[in-house]
Amino acid sequence: MFKNLKIPHTFTIVFGIIIICAIATWIVPGGEFKREKVMVNESEKMVVATDSFQKVPHEPQTWEIFTSLFKGFNRTSSIIIFILMIGGAFWVYNETDAINRGIYSFIQSIDKLKKFKLLNRIGVHNIIFTLIMLLFSLFGAVFGMSEETIAFIIIFVPLSISMGYDSVVGVLICYVAAHVGFAGAMLNPFTIGIAQGLSGLPTFSGLEYRVICWAVLTLLAIIFTLIYAAKVKKNPQKSFMYELDHYWRDKLDAHHHTHEKVKSGLATWIIFALVSLVLIYFAIQLPESSITLGGNHYSIPFFPILSVLFILLGFYTIRISVHSFILTLLLVTILVLIIGVLGYEWYVMEIAGLFFAMGILSGLAFRMKLDNIMKSFLTGCKDIMNAALIVGLAGGIIIILEDGKIVDTILYAISNSLQGTGREGSLGVMYMIQNGLNLIIPSGSAKAALTIPMMAEFSDIIGIHRQLAVLAFQFGDGFTNMITPASGVLIGVLGVAKIPYGKWAKFIFPYILVLIVIGFLLLLPPLYFSFNGF
Fold it and tell me: Between these two residues, 489 and 222, which has the higher pLDDT value?
């Protein structure tokens, strides 16, 4: 019966949700909590004051459903600009054909590994996907990688399709891996750090049990990905993205006519010298970089090491081909991104600027004229414009609920539902509340400030350790991020990968249900057994 059911366009789905939220503002009574400022981990946060809920007149939303797009663009402007700059920068980068040639060389190297019987029996592709997912899951667990995955989608989607898979596999090994790590985080400052601070718990306490949770959730994600990837590899037409992935297949085919090495020219050597001088300058100015992991500070001579690495690797690759050197620029960009996030609190503005610089330098190294580089950049922005527009539209969902004065009413109603349900029941309801709220408030730090003060006190009343309230928040904040249309990161990732939201939701929904069940089961052991920090 549903075989010929047509899934609406992502714009239609998100706009439909906005209309439903607007209707809710006519039905749900208005209400507000009082907010107060508290210091959390040396930063000021606005949190809900205990027992401060009061009824206020609700403000039914009518024509505001149209202005919510404008406000949504305002609220998510940083992510929108980030998507446009990343799209433009990688379009310039792709004009050099370096990524496609790198993918081709990578696949050739993988094929050579198949001569080893053990690796061939396990599956070389399985090993590659597992290692990539472990890396990105660690990034999500340690420093809360989220928005950054948008930039990597442009690399991993073409890679997965070139290997005989589909765009979904490219999203799974990067975005889903990072967000599973985000959910099972061990040292994530944006969720655990803030939530524990608001709960009065030592920062990053309970680490040992969180490592177990992270391992279980990451293993589940890897198994899910490998099973789906094997199905697509066996029969590509079983992919629900088979027809739509023609965009990527056509794009890759257009660059597969030749793989001859292109020698580096004078422009390439000039860019090599320029980047070397810049890195040497930073090595002198920043001989040591301080990174923070789990509340511990480490000093490492990152830029001196990176300078030496780039000079040696750059000199070697520039003599092979200009494409090899451009891939080296990409590697350096990724390394600088990691240290920038860990050591210098970089966010989307700095990351976008970094990739923009990479795009320009790559184009110049490839002997492109600056005018052509800028034209390519604008073409890339145009190509990815849909993804940026959808992010702005999705931002309008929470705008409607907030302007209608019903967000706090919803929160107050579901917090009251915790009464009289017993320890296990209360923990389960607390967990489901966090999952439900995440559908409309995907920001972990915002939701922590909104819910943790109440949840922490309620956990004291029913005899549950506050650490479990934090863990329930952590899981609830992470899982539904991968399906909620209110998440600008998810919508951005799907837009870049050219995957319609409706198709993605239909695909990922069963997996999200499994994650939610596993998450609840992981909440139970600390109720009955003693774990450090719980």
Answer: 222
